[in-house]
Structure formats: structure tokens, C-alpha cells
Amino acid sequence: MARTKFSLEYQIRSSPSILYSFLTTPSGLTQWFCESCDINEDIYTFGWDGSTEDARLVEGVDPEKVVYVWVDGEDDEYFSFEITKSEISNDTVLYLTDFTEADEVEDQKQLWLSQFEQLTKRIGA
């Protein structure tokens, strides 16, 4: 059964380059996304509650875009972050794209929003 693609938009007071580092470095990712993170070439090993999942960094354009593909995931699925500046407020806008089961979209959105709140606190925004 095909999974559902969804997107979120989140405003964050941060420079795009600082935000990018929180999306791509082990020290940044462990402050808001996962408990542990190791990188071996382009494979990121994320750890939560004693288990790990591997994702491949397939695109990284500093400070604009980050795309990961889960190593054990579906071939056409990914999770990505795009970073832009709002022309009106000059705030940085973080766009997320991810995939989940159709009946879990709202739960996944809430999970990401709580993660983004942690990210905002860690950045000090």
C-alpha cells in the first residue's frame, strides 16, 4: 500500500547556515532529532531508545536543502528539509517533506512540530 507524502512549513529565527548545520551535523542533529548520530561517508546512523536507523544523505546544498533516504525504506521515499528566507518577515522558513501511512499523517505532523520546537529552543530562537 502506497504511503502518503506530506509537507510542513515552520518559521524559525535563525540564519540559514546555522539551521543547515543543525540538519546535517551529528552535534546539531542530536540536539533535536535523535539521541545519537554517527556519519560514515554519506550514511547517517540515527539512534533512538537503543535502536538505530540508517539514512543516506542524497542531497546537501548548504544552506538551502537537505535530502535523506532511509536505507531500509521504500525506493521512492525520502525526508527533506528546504530552507528559505521569507521576503516579508525576513525569518527563515524550514519546509519538511516526509512520508507515512495515510492514517498517521496528523500524528507524524505533530511529532515533527514538537521536534521543530526542540530545534528552535536549541538554536536559541
What is the string of SSEs from the N terminus onward? EHHEEEEEEH
Main sheet: strand order: 1-7-6-5-4-3-2
Sketch the major β-sheet: 7 strands, antiparallel
In terms of structural class, how would the helical and strand content be classed?
A: alpha+beta
CATH class: Alpha Beta
Q: Which overall shape is indicated by the principal axes computed on the Cα atoms? A: globular
CATH fold node name: Alpha-D-Glucose-1,6-Bisphosphate, Chain A, domain 4
Query: Please, how many domains?
Result: 1
User: Which strand-content bin applies to the residues?
Assistant: 35-45%
Q: What's the topology here?
A:
Blueprint: E1 4-12, H1 16-24, H2 26-29, E2 36-40, E3 43-48, E4 51-61, E5 65-70, E6 79-85, E7 92-100, H3 105-123
Antiparallel strand pairs: 1-7, 2-3, 3-4, 4-5, 5-6, 6-7
Describe what you observe in this structure.
The protein is α+β, with helices and mostly antiparallel strands and 125 residues long. It has a single domain (4-123), classed as START domain (Alpha-D-Glucose-1,6-Bisphosphate, Chain A, domain 4), CATH 3.30.530. The chain is 26% helix and 42% strand. The protein has three helices and seven strands. The protein has helices at residues 16-24, 26-29, 105-123; strands at 4-12, 36-40, 43-48, 51-61, 65-70, 79-85, 92-100. Strands 1-7-6-5-4-3-2 form a seven-stranded antiparallel beta sheet. A hairpin with a 3-residue loop joins strand 4 and strand 5. The longest helix is centred in the C-terminal third of the chain and has 19 residues, at 105-123. The chain is globular, with a radius of gyration of 14 Å. The chain starts with a strand and ends with a helix.
